[in-house]
Amino acid sequence: MAGATRVFAAQTVGLPVYGPSGESIGKVRDIVAALRLDRKPPRVLGIVVELPTRRPIFVPMLRITSVAGDGISLATGSVSLRQFEQRRTEVLVSGQLIGTKVRIATTTAAATIVDAAIEQTRTRDWIVDRIAVRERSGMLTRRAPVQVLGWTDVRGLDLTDFTDSTNLRTEQLLASFEGIRAADAASAIRELPPARRYEIADALDDDRLADVIEELPEDDQKDLLAHLDDARAADILEAMDPDDAADLLAELPTGLSERLLELMEPEESAPVRRLLQYSFDTVGGLMTPEPIVMTPDATVAEALARVRSPDLTPALASMVFVCRPPQATPTGRYLGVVHTQRLLREAPFGLVAAAIDTQVARLSPTGTLAEVTRFFAAYNLVCAPVVDDEEHLLGAVTVDDVLDHLLPDNWREEGIGDIPNRPRSTPRLKDAGRS
């Protein structure tokens, strides 16, 4: 696209829009961006063009060939002449974003957005990457100067405040959750006021809410769980990974924890109860009781089919544990592991017994966090078997579980990109475009 690669929204309002032959089409009324709940800059979807007849239409950014101070040019191709109607997951940059009250992240000072810059990326997409703000003051003094900050340098920007309907705001939030990772959704939920958090928790299905709760800090987990009635809370715990559910239950008052366990289905509560027997700073407290377990007479094709499950984390999918029946933990006699890379090199009709690695060291459920950390550092693995004295496989520890306990206690509050690069003396032992 020729012309400017960064332009401020206020400068585009009223600019003439020209067709491929240079004919006048109309003028720019606003810029349309996609709502996001994570901290990434919103993607610009297109512009609202006001025709000579005063009808507003939507023009996708892909139809724009250049943005310049004297106008915007369109490429050859058809454009819908239907009247523009704002969708629930969209925000008008000039009409709605400008004027919004925010906080400056570095100083926590209150400010107001006075303009926003859109920029074209290497992928030729346009994003709202910079925001011009002016600090607010209650005193009758000279106005503060304008500061141009990155999108991630402001806080408190709730993009769902651009409508007066509470139900509509909730629908916008839910729509914005689609397609983003649970960790990003959890970060977005933490930015919302308590009442809005509860609205979202009530509207999300059990599996999605469980995924989000797993990514929240401990205090926020307990707060959301306390908001739910006991029956729904038990359903959420059932949908969580057993190790995460056990960690959360261990932080609740004993009476409430036991009441929720009683409400859970027996087959769902049994592995959680087993995990609660171990101290949080031991291998047993870190492990998941649901790794991939197969008998030695299973085929390579069957093992690969299990590995392909989208419900598995990459770490758990890195190896298959081979045991005598029963396959549910605690299993029959533990025989060894088969690495997924090895499975990919074997014939599909072969047996996993022929590919067993018996040399992988085992972890004891009573081992310490320091021991499991040394294990992963020494063997360059991302998953390890946990075996008791009677040769039963109890579960598996993954490197992400270990990192979760080694990182600072408040790493979820600070965010992935904000974790300071400092040593710890005491480890924690515990968008598509518009169509």
Explain the overall architecture:
There is one protein chain. This protein has 17 helices and 19 strands. The protein has 435 residues and is of the alpha+beta class. 32% of the residues lie in helices and 23% in strands. Strand 7 and strand 8 form a beta hairpin. The C terminus is likely disordered. The strands form three sheets. Strands 1, 2, 3, 4, 5, 6, 7, 8, 9, 10, 11, 12, 13 and 14 form a 14-stranded mixed sheet that branches. Strands 15-16-17 form a three-stranded mixed sheet. The radius of gyration is 27 Å and the shape is elongated. The two termini are 21 Å apart. The chain has three domains: 151 residues, PRC-barrel domain (SH3 type barrels); 97 residues, MgtE N-terminal domain-like (MgtE N-terminal fold); 112 residues, CBS-domain.
Q: What structural class do helix, strand and pairing data support?
A: alpha+beta
The beta-strand count equals 19
| Mean pLDDT value | 85
Give the full name of the CATH homologous superfamily of the largest domain: PRC-barrel domain
CATH topological fold name of the largest domain = SH3 type barrels
**Helix fraction by DSSP (H/I, runs of at least 4):** 25-40%
Strand fraction band? 15-25%
Catalogue the unreliable spans. 163-168, 416-433
Overall, the morphology is elongated
Q: What number of domains?
A: 3
Alpha carbon gyration radius: 27 Å
Question: How many angstroms separate the termini?
Answer: 21 Å
Please tell me the CATH architecture of the largest domain by its name: Roll
Q: What is the C-level CATH assignment of the largest domain?
A: Mainly Beta
What summary fits the major beta sheet? Answer: 14 strands, mixed
Counting DSSP H or I runs of 4 or more residues, the number of helices is 17
